[in-house]
Amino acid sequence: MPAKTGLQRKMTVPNVTIVVVPREQFSKARQGLESIFAHTTPAYKLIYIDGKSPSRLRRYLEDEAAEKGFRLIREERYLTGNQARNLAVPHIQTKYTVFIDNDVVPSPGWLEPLIECAEETGAWVVGPVYCTGDLNNPVIHTLGGEQSIDGGNGTRRWRERHFYCGRLLSDVASELHRRPLDLVEFHCLLMRTEVFDRLGPFDPALLSYFDHSDFCLMVRNAGGPIYVEPRSVVTYLPPPPLALSDVPYFMLRWSNRWINASAIHFAHKNGIEVNDPVFEDHFEYQQAQRARVLRHPRHVVRRILGYRALTLLEKTIDRVLDWTVTAHLD
């Protein structure tokens, strides 16, 4: 039998803690957790952050934690991504930490390449290929991206560009290679745990969506390398379908209140204007997310009153739903 390499020997004991956090829904959480159990080979520790999940999922997580011995931290409130991640930090004692959303399915052998990339390059942060949709024929959500904030006072502009979005992974797999870049996403990323000592906790004022951009800017500003490792693949499972029990949390995550507060804070923190054109793309993405839930009520209004009435009522519907969600859940 061939002798084990140094890295292989390290992987026989936990060198990494996987932290699962809620993102926008709960109905995919069981599939996500079971895929971690099924597809993760090296030894690892697991921390699961549960923010007010429905009773059936809560009982499932309690049973799994008791049987498998992982740490389950539950809060009786809906959590932002950064709130959930910060809850885990005091309990992490391994060299590396992986943050992964509860609605993400990692592919077999996903973790080893992330660790190997960090070990071989000295990267502070490593991201996989992010896919979406059909697990058997995945479409690339992003391969990470470039971002920068350029210009002097009063003219600073945020630049952001993602790679391979919307391409079939099978069509471009041969083109993908490990490389440094500026931006990976919290759908799944590996980081050196010591980065917390350098940068402090995740920013709790970022309630929605801009958390990964902010974190990666902080890493790069501190001189930390960020890499993408395409030998690791994960798939985000967006709605539809969206369970009825998902709707309040989903709408809160994509509410105007959370998005606008996050955008304003991110802009002020980085010295850029909120009317920077790049924010328009992010607000369009927010509206596309909200449309996943609002599609049915809009369809009902259109059938009863017609398209013109829908156009007149659309903003009112949005405002009422937004107020209802944030007033009772935030």
Task: Give short descriptive properties of this protein.
2 domains, two-stranded antiparallel sheet, disordered N terminus, Spore Coat Polysaccharide Biosynthesis Protein SpsA, Chain A, ten-stranded mixed beta sheet
CATH fold-level assignment of the largest domain: Spore Coat Polysaccharide Biosynthesis Protein SpsA, Chain A
Helix residue percentage: 40-55%
- What's the architecture of the largest domain in CATH terms? Alpha-Beta Complex
List the secondary-structure elements in sequence, H or E.
Answer: HEHEHEHEEHEEEEHEEHHEHHHH
How many discrete domains? 2
Q: CATH class of the largest domain, anyone?
A: Alpha Beta
Give Rg in angstroms. 20 Å
Number of helices: 12
Shape: globular
Structural class: alpha/beta
The span between the termini is: 57 Å
Low-confidence runs of at least 5 consecutive residues: 1-10
* Percentage of β-strand residues: 15-25%
For the biggest sheet, the summary is:
10 strands, mixed
Tell how many strands the DSSP assignment holds. 12
What is the typical, i.e. mean, pLDDT?
88
CATH homologous superfamily title of the largest domain: Spore Coat Polysaccharide Biosynthesis Protein SpsA, Chain A
